[in-house]
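User: quick one, sequence for these C-alpha cells?
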C-alpha cells in the first residue's frame, strides 16, 4: 500500500540524529525541482513546444478577454475545452484542458482556497465505491511524483469552506487534453500548469461553465 513519505536517502537512516524539519523541507524541494525539470521539455516555449502531440489549438495562447471579467480569476469552457486565466491588461492566457467524463463534470462557481506543488493524491470515497477494483488499492493516498494522477501542481476548488474534491491539476496523461477523461477534475499538461500555478493566487474565483454554455472570452 502506498503511503505519504518524505524523499530522504537510505543512508540518512544510518544516523542516530533525526533530520531537522528545515533539512527535510530542503530535500523535498530539491526532489520537486528534479521532477519539474523531468516534465518540462528542453528549450520549453509554452506557445510552441509540443512533444505531447496536442492539437495546436490546445497550446497556450494569449487572447482578448471581455471587460466584465475579473483579473486573476479562472474560467473553464467545457465545450471548447479551454481554461482562461484573466490578466490585468484585459487579456487572458488560454490553455487546453480535459474535463470530467459523463456526469462527473460539475459546473459551478468555486474559490481556489489552496494550491500545492507535487501534491499527494487520494481517491474520493465516491471513486472507490464506483470502481473499487481501480481505486481501493490507493485509498491511503499516493505520494507526489511524475506518475501521480494530480501531476506537478494542483489548485483546490472549494464551495465556501467545503472542499469539493474538484481540482485543476497536471496530468501524466497529456493525450487526454481536449477530451472528457477525468473523474471530475480539470486536467492540464504538466508544463502548462507549472506556469499557471505561479500566477494564480489563493482566494480567486474559478468558474466552470456548463457543457451547454460558452465562456465569455474571445478566442
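Assistant:
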Amino acid at each position: 500500500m502506498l503511503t505519504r513519505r518524505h524523499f530522504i536517502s537510505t543512508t540518512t537512516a544510518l544516523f542516530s540524529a533525526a533530520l531537522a524539519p528545515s533539512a527535510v523541507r530542503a530535500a523535498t524541494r530539491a526532489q520537486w525541482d528534479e521532477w519539474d525539470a523531468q516534465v518540462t521539455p528542453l528549450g520549453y516555449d509554452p506557445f510552441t513546444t509540443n512533444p505531447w502531440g496536442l492539437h495546436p489549438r490546445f497550446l497556450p495562447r494569449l487572447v482578448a478577454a471581455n471587460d466584465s471579467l475579473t483579473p486573476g480569476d479562472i474560467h473553464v469552457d467545457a465545450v471548447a475545452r479551454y481554461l482562461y486565466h484573466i490578466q490585468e491588461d484585459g487579456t487572458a492566457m488560454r490553455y487546453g484542458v480535459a474535463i470530467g467524463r459523463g456526469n462527473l463534470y460539475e459546473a459551478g462557481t468555486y474559490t481556489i482556497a489552496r494550491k500545492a506543488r507535487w501534491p499527494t493524491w487520494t481517491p474520493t470515497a465516491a471513486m472507490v465505491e464506483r470502481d473499487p477494483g481501480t481505486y481501493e488499492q490507493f485509498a491511503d493516498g499516493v505520494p507526489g511524483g511524475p506518475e501521480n494522477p494530480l501531476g506537478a501542481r494542483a489548485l483546490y476548488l472549494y464551495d465556501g469552506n467545503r472542499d469539493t474534491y474538484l481540482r485543476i491539476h497536471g496530468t501524466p496523461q497529456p493525450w487526454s487534453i481536449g477530451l472528457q477523461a477525468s473523474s471530475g477534475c480539470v486536467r492540464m499538461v504538466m508544463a502548462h500548469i507549472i506556469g499557471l500555478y505561479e500566477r494564480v493566487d489563493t482566494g480567486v474565483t474559478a468558474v466552470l461553465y456548463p457543457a451547454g454554455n460558452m465562456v465569455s472570452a474571445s478566442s
